Structures are given as C-alpha cells and as structure tokens.
Amino acid sequence: MNQLLPRSLKALAAAMQHPLYVVGGSVRDYLAGCFSASADWDICSPAAETEVERAAAVCGMRVTSVYRNTGTVKLTDEEGTGFEFTRFRSDKYVRGLHTPAEIEFTEDMVRDARRRDFCANAVYYEIGADAFRDPLGGIPDIRNRCLRTVAPAEKVFGEDGLRLARLARLAAETGFSPDEECLAGATRNCALIRDIAPERVYAELDRLLRADRKAGGAQGPYRGLCILRATGVLRELLPELAAGDGMAQRADFHAYDVLEHSFKCVYYAPLSVRWAALLHDVGKPFCFLRDGNFHAHPEEGARLAADILARLKAPRKSAERVVRLVALHMRDFDLRMKESKVRRDILRYADLLDDLFALRQADYSACKDDLSPAPGVVKWRAVLAAMRTEGVPFTLKELAVSGDDLAAFGLSGKRIGEALEDLLFYCAQDGSRNTRAALLKHLEHIYKENV
To answer: Bridge partners of 21?
Structure first.
C-alpha cells in the first residue's frame, strides 16, 4: 500500500513522533483489491492535534481546520489532496444521538477501533512500518466480503442512527454482506434513523443510488435498497414508497409488486435519473388506498416526491427536475396521443427529453426485465427525429422573427412573449413554417383583431 500513498502523507508520517496510520475505506478497498485513486484519506494516531499541526508545517501541508474537542485536524497538501486526521479516542453516546456525548482520548488502538462502525473499516495501515494492524479481525471480514459490527450490533446502531443508512450504502458500494447479527441489530434500531439530520440522510441515500460506480458494481444501488427494506429503515425514511411493498400490479404488465418494481427501475436507470426512478411510482400506494386504482399516480406521485425531497432537504433544482419527471413518466403510455400533441410536448419539455426517455425506458424494462426499446420512447424519438429533419425551432432564439419584429407589428410587454411562444408551437407542426414571411403572416392572422 505504501506505493499508493501521496508523498505528502509519507512526509507527514516521517515528521511525527508518534506512528501515523491510514484507516477506514482506503485501507478496506486496498485489501479488497478495489483501491481508487480518488480515495478519502482518513488518518489517525495517538498524537495530539498540536503534533500534527507542527508536522504539517514541517512538510509543507496546510491546516484548514482544527476541532480540538474531537481531536480532528483537516489538512491539504500542495496538490490539493485532502486528509482528515483524528486522534485515537473512545466515544460514549446517548442513545440515538449522532454526536458523541463524551470523548476520551487514548493511546489504545483497540479502544479507537471499537468506536468505529464495522470491523472492515477498522483495519489500520502504519505508514512508517509499512504494516497493517488489525485489532478486531477486519482483514478476514474483507476477504469474506462481510460487514460485522465492531461491538454488539445493538450497541453500534443504538449509539448512532446514521449507521443504519451507512450499512446499506457501504453494502451497496462494496458488495459486502451484513452478517445476521448486524442485520438484526439494524432492524431493532431502525426507528433511530429519524433522529438524523435530513441532509445527512439525503447524502447517504444519494451515494447509495450512485453506488454502481464503486466496487459493488451494477447491482450496488439495488442491493443497498434491499437492505433498507429488510431492516425497516426504508419504512422509517420513505413510508410513502415503502407502502408499495407487497402491493400487487397487473400481471400482464408487471412481474413485480410496486416497491420491487421501483427498485428494479433504479437498477435499469442511468445515473442522471436514479432519484426519479426510485420515486416514479410513489403515488401508486396512495392512489390505490384512496381510489382502489393507480389512475392518478403520476400527479399524486409528483406531489409526494416534492414532499419527500423537501423533507430530505434535497438540492432545490435537482428536486424540481425529479418532480417534473415523476409527473411526466406516464405521458402517452398507451401510444394514443396524436402526433401534433406529441410535437407540442416535445417542445414544451425539451430540457427534460433525454432524462424522460431514460426514465421511461427504465420503467419499461423494470416491468418484466425486458431490455427491448420501450414503445413509447421509440414513438417519441421518431417524432423528434422528424422535427429535427424539418428544422423545427426548439427555442425562441431559433425562430425566424424576434421580439423587435413583434414590437414593430404592434405588440408590447407580456404579449410579445406570448406571441413568440405561439409561433414556436406553430412551427412545431411543420418546420418549413419557420420563415419570417410565414410567421408574420400567421401573426397577422391570429392577432389582427387584438393589435
């Protein structure tokens, strides 16, 4: 592992009196054979923060922040690589609170390891000695691809509810499996996830949905979601979605219940639409319990998705896009929409088209694991191709007339914007209409009585 360490980190270790260790995900991933150059560098030592600060000054690293109550020092080197140092310590928690109630610094590696979450994350690499230290048997766990808690699972999850989400996310990213005690402890403590700040929960779920970029592979996000379901954490976080567990759908269209279909949709969806894939049918349980059918689920789903993402304090722009996709995912599902209306919709939702097509394909594939092109996507892509061939303008800037032309025609203020939009939709039906003469003639026809 020594060859993979940044030179600055080796220099920092050499400048310190106490041994310096790398710990956590970078060590785990190295031993698992999936080390990434973008690894997070978590380092630790019995040394006090002042020793780290002095050593950093010697080797040209910059201290960006110091938290003396937790023994934490954040550093960056000249190349911008970040490191987070934490002094060996033992933590005591009040049940359910994410922040330790009491911290005691120690020189005992075993006590430091016991404050962590899983044994696979509690293997230490001593930089100066070029040797691994494994106080809790984490190396065999890594070889066996196992997630085992550093102490009784009841204690580990009872201390910090965020570990419930981390369990699912780490299983998704690594492909490791929780052992029976780990799963049982998470299940018994699942309600503690409610005590965690929504931003922290959203960050864990977002990483879980992107886990296929890690060693867990393509099955990663699906695997993580299944663990959230199995432990009951999903029911605590997203009860609207979890209500679809076991809720049957029409067998001629679906092989899975509502919740499993949503998980499958995530599996088939590209990265850009994972949240929309997860929430696209969140309206189905609500509609079925209210109406006995799923008819209004896109509209109700968009409302519920907005509520969920607001509750999780998701980034506003991302949330708005997810809500729009959920609302539109069933558009023209029966292929009965006239081409003229499809053309208008293609213009209206032009900024969403790539993601909407991706979501609809994932939704189609998730019904019965069918990878063939979704008929609705095929239809809309054909119409889109025809529009492009015709030279249909997709933005107001592409129109052959401008706001100045409309002002000269006699329109003003808000009516200019409305007229330009009317002309854009007029051109949607036939790209050859996008000439100055044709548009002004059409303008005269529709506005002659109102100018």
So the answer is: 44, 126
